[in-house]
Design goal:
With about 190 residues, the protein is of the alpha/beta class. It contains five helices and eight strands. Strands 3-2-1-4-5-8 form a six-stranded parallel sheet, with helices on both faces. Strands 6-7 form a two-stranded antiparallel ribbon. Strand 1, helix 1 and strand 2 (about 50-55) form a beta-alpha-beta unit. Helix 3 runs parallel beside helix 4. The relative contact order is 0.21.
Length: about 190
């Protein structure tokens, strides 16, 4: 990766308490939170923009339902007063949130995306970012997902689901890098 833009935005997707609920199942990448913390600290120290995205579910059974602890940000990822927070009701952080407008108003053209779930909100947001013309990076070791069954009932490991989601993004939408490469570009 070439150098990070001085205003490259870090998008932290859905790092809320509910993502740790046992009913979501087995996950991959147990060090993702550590990588996210390292990148967040770097962004804050370099005074680059940080954007926190919070999923607000309309499903009454969701771990992200408003008014319950699962909807709140994890303690390590609570936004600071000057950091942007966008709420979404769908996986895509750009859909009906005002995020695209906010980025354009600030002349931000480069996005670094991380968080959860790799094959859902991260992938959806990165696809939109790429389609909208943003120079998009997804930090593979700062994302994770869960085991998932396909429509035929076959169980796919979180590692396979994660790898395929990142591969899909790498085709046309985003560069896939690890946190070491992103920090080195800073």
């Amino acid at each position: 990766m070439t150098a990070l833009a001085s205003n490259a935005a870090l998008l932290i997707i859905d790092m809320q308490n509910g993502i740790n609920h046992p009913r979501l199942g087995r996950r991959n990448n147990p060090e993702a939170e550590q990588r996210i913390s390292e990148l967040l600290a770097f962004w804050r120290a370099s005074m680059r923009p940080v954007v926190h995205v919070r999923h607000i579910s309309r499903d009454p059974d969701s771990v992200f339902r408003p008014g319950q602890p699962g909807c709140e940000f994890q303690p390590a990822f609570v936004p600071q007063a000057h950091e942007a927070v966008f709420e979404k009701h769908l996986p895509d952080a750009f859909c009906n949130s005002g995020l695209e407008h906010w980025l354009h108003q600030r002349g931000i053209h480069q996005l670094v995306i991380l968080g959860v779930v790799t094959n859902n909100s991260v992938e959806s947001t990165a696809r939109s970012a790429g389609n909208l013309g943003f120079a998009t990076v997804v930090v593979g070791d700062a994302c994770y997902t869960f085991d998932q069954r396909d429509l035929q009932g076959r169980l796919w490991s979180a590692e396979d689901v994660h790898a395929l989601a990142l591969s899909n993004l790498a085709m046309d939408y985003a560069r896939i890098l690890d946190s070491t490469a992103v920090l080195a570009a800073g």
